[in-house]
Amino acid sequence: MLKVHQIDVFYGNIQALKGVSLEVQEGEIVTLIGANGAGKSTLLKTLSGLLKPKKGTIQYLENSIAGKPAQSIVKAGISHVPEGRRVFANMTVEENLQLGAYLRKDLQGVKQDFERVYELFPRLLERKKQLSGTLSGGEQQMLAMGRAIMAKPKLLLLDEPSMGLAPLMVKTIFSIIEEINRAGTTILLVEQNAHMALSIANRAYVIETGSVVASGPAAELQASEQIKEAYLGGL
Ligand code: ATP
């Protein structure tokens, strides 16, 4: 579904990604783990058209999308939930969800997806008239994910959905990610919480200072001594 080949991405003179390659097959949950500043968010931003690679190719469903405008990438079926769950604070839950669907013309489908999002996140249904800025951190994460689902993505890019959340909320969010995947959406998940990410992913990539240093089935990486040492707190 997605094939990233040898991409280089720069911020001015600083090279944030160095020849990164990775693949995501339809139906998978793939996770990208790595320390702070490794380049995880940069990769997602490049996939969703916010950054342009200087070198390399990105194939998505047989189309080349490297450097394409973000809007056309959303239209093609890639939704990005950025780090820090940016919701429009002065708008209600419902209005934020509506915005997620702004490119869609299939109004009947949008209506169904509203129902689907409220089924996935009952908490959002209870609070649909509430201003988003007053939601808790976990609820804002749910809203950011819900808004992305409203774009009807084939591929969902999630940037650190567990960040700053209490353990119980992290569990809830991860089980919803699995549910979204079971219902047919492919997922590329960036996480610092390597334990949780590896426990739900099919495959994983480890990124260090802009390069992929390991990859394989999630269960294999979870069992690797080196990965345990570096990313799983030695557990
Ligand atoms: P974190 O887990 O801390 O979010 P990350 O793996 O997502 O880290 P990135 O945000 O992709 O890392 O950053 C990769 C590198 O690019 C870092 O060295 C960072 O300082 C740098 N970088 C990120 N954004 C910019 C920017 N707008 N301008 C300059 N450098 C940047």
Automatic annotation (TrEMBL):
Belongs to the ABC transporter superfamily. PROSITE patterns: ABC_TRANSPORTER_1 (PS00211), ABC_TRANSPORTER_2 (PS50893). GO terms for biological process: L-amino acid transport. It holds the Pfam family ABC_tran. This is ABC transporter ATP-binding protein. InterPro entries: AAA+_ATPase, ABC_branched_ATPase_LivF/BraG, ABC_transporter-like_ATP-bd, ABC_transporter-like_CS, BCAA_Transport_ATP-bd_LivF, P-loop_NTPase. Keywords: Amino-acid transport, ATP-binding, Nucleotide-binding, Transport. CDD domains: ABC_TM1139_LivF_branched (cd03224). Gene3D superfamilies: P-loop containing nucleotide triphosphate hydrolases. Residues 2-234 form the ABC transporter domain. One of its GO terms (molecular function) is ATP binding. It comes from Robertmurraya kyonggiensis.
